[in-house]
Specification:
There is one protein chain. The protein is about 20% helix and about 30% strand. It starts with 5 loop residues before the first strand and ends in a 19-residue tail after the last helix.
């Protein structure tokens, strides 16, 4: 899967290194939140922290927490 598989609907948040978008997956029209992180301006420690966040989100299985779908790496613009 890649960013090309989603249609961006709206920007719903922004921080120092990341933006969060409301997106729709083209294959089934399901709505998701997509977090795009700019790692090119991060230190090695910050990149390691971002990867740990991905691992943590992928491991959570709890009914009151939004689930994690997938992580992918690429050069894309929104």
């Amino acid at each position: 899967m890649s960013l090309k598989d989603f249609r961006v609907v709206d920007n719903i948040g922004k921080g120092s290194f990341a933006s969060v978008y409301k997106v729709i997956r083209k294959s089934d029209n399901k709505v998701y939140a997509l977090k795009k992180v700019k790692i090119n301006k991060m230190s090695k420690k910050e990149i390691a922290d971002a990867l740990n966040e991905i691992r943590f989100l992928a491991s959570i299985r709890q009914k009151n927490i939004v689930g994690f779908l997938e992580a992918f790496l690429g050069k894309y613009s929104i």
